[in-house]
Design brief:
By secondary structure, the protein is an alpha/beta fold. The chain has one domain (11-239): Acetylglutamate kinase-like (Carbamate kinase). Helix content is 37%, strand content 18%. It is globular, with a radius of gyration of 17 Å.
Length: 240
């Protein structure tokens, strides 16, 4: 499919998992992966696309897993939110090395390292061509960073959520385990929820469905795919 001459979306929210920053490591942040993401974001910023990012914390701490091992769920989730802020600062550093002006905005107040989330201020940053990295999830336990992405995308009036994964879209089965798994090019919100697909949690998808916010699920490990997604190329699965 030939890309159009101009981006299909003016303002996007890029959802990155914490695991995306690990690369091939088992833990932490791979600087090479952070740099690749930063180069891809710098590319779309240069085309005039306003970019916000929500990042997870699973490469450092996963609240649900800790809760399953007996830790208080709310405490575990707050620890996970702090991990997302570590990742947001790492991504800010990588973006600034690409000469991209970046602001880290957090739902948990932490003025020494990040701005508190104020909706109108975040929108103003985007209008001034700054990348906004949202850390701290929603600021509440029991909500995933997928839900934070859906919430922030609607608050800033994003045109689409770009859900970056290590797989090239949504399949009806795990493609790593089932060679015959079928990839969807498009999927209705209701069908996504009915099939119980695990790419994004149901709360986030329901929020998007109620507010008609499309979700593009694509493979971020291939350089240039963020640009292709922004140009509306058929590189993954569009949930709408």
């Amino acid at each position: 499919m030939t890309a159009p001459r101009s981006p299909a979306y003016k303002r996007v929210l890029l959802k990155l998992s914490g695991e995306a920053l690990m690369g091939d490591q088992g833990y932490g942040i791979d600087p090479a992966v952070a740099s690749q993401i930063a180069r891809d974001v710098a590319e779309i910023q240069g085309m005039g696309v306003e970019t916000a990012i929500v990042i997870g914390g699973g490469n450092i701490f996963r609240g649900v897993a800790a809760s399953a091992r007996g830790m208080d769920r709310a405490t575990a989730d707050y620890m996970g939110m702090l991990a997302t802020i570590i990742n947001a600062l790492a991504l800010q550093d990588a973006l600034e090395q690409q000469d991209v002006v970046t602001r880290v905005v957090t739902a948990i107040e932490m003025r020494a390292v990040a701005e508190p989330f104020i909706r109108r201020r975040a929108i103003r940053h985007l209008e001034k061509r700054r990348v906004v990295v949202f850390g701290g999830g929603t600021g509440n336990p029991y909500f995933s960073t997928d839900t934070a992405a859906a919430l922030r995308a609607m608050e800033i009036k994003a045109d689409v959520i770009l859900k970056a994964t290590k797989v090239d879209g949504i399949y009806d089965a795990d493609p790593k385990l089932n060679a015959g798994a079928k990839r969807f090019s498009e999927l209705a919100y209701n069908e996504f929820l009915r099939q119980g697909l695990k790419v994004m949690d149901a709360t986030a998808v329901t929020l998007c469905m109620e507010n008609s916010l499309p979700i593009m699920v694509f493979n971020m490990t291939e350089a240039g795919n963020i640009r292709r997604a922004v140009f509306g190329e058929a590189i993954g699965t569009l949930v709408h």
